[in-house]
Fold this sequence. Notes:
This protein is α+β, with helices and mostly antiparallel strands. 42% of the residues lie in helices and 23% in strands.
Amino acid sequence: MIRLDDVNAFVQTVDAGSFSAAARLAGGTPAMVSNAVQRLERELGVRLFVRSTRSMRLSDDGERYLPHARAMLDSLASGSRVLAEGRGDISGPLRLAVPSDLGRNVLLPWLDVFQAAHPDVTLQLRISDRITDLHRHPIDAAVRYGVLRDSTLVAQPLLPDNRRVVCASPDYVARHGAPSHPDELREHNCLCFVWGDQVHDRWLFDLPRGLHTVKVSGNRISDDGEVTHRWGLAGHGIIYKSRADIEADLRSGRLVDLLPNLGEHAPLNLVTAHRSQLTPAVQRLRDFLREEFARVAA
């Protein structure tokens, strides 16, 4: 008989990339995870992984079995959620992927409040500026900026009117002046962000005559949005950030909006792979985050 714990060990190993990494996530040992996968392989009569002394990858049978294993675990979790919904509460794991700057500096304290209100929820947070494949990774929902490129995903608006803001510290403005038009950014030190494998050095603006792109440059580049944020606060140059990330800095005067109302439209959404993932917990989180963003905006 196939044990669900063994199926879970198999899926965790795929997601983590190794027995040892899966063991760390599960709080067990590599031997326990390896034994669970071997037990599952014996029950199925196939090899799920191709192993060598230096590497491990899914076999062809493992590739074919993986979506069924995920569906099995999702069905089990769905049944538990239905029962919880009937009781009017939410519980179980809630797996979120969030951008680095927004996640650490805005969402983290809000999620503390959310979890305090729902203590039976186990929060699993992935903070990264790399876009997580929601179809392949075990993520319930992701907080993302911009218009979705993948039409198969489902977006729940959190902050639909959000824009990007060209800003710098008062110290930088005092030393170098402020641009009066986006084209003048070419004369400034602009701190750029790496998105995927591309440097985001073409900044888009919403001008009265239409969209306008400016190619910028600077002496610092990072693939972490929080790092560029800190550089901007420290006066090292001009940054182009989502207003949701820097609202507190603008209000306190730590950053100055240099080109008000010209920034690119950057709506913020809570995204799921499909509508079946709009569970009671995800919907409750969506409503909570909407209220928090509305409170800050007000």
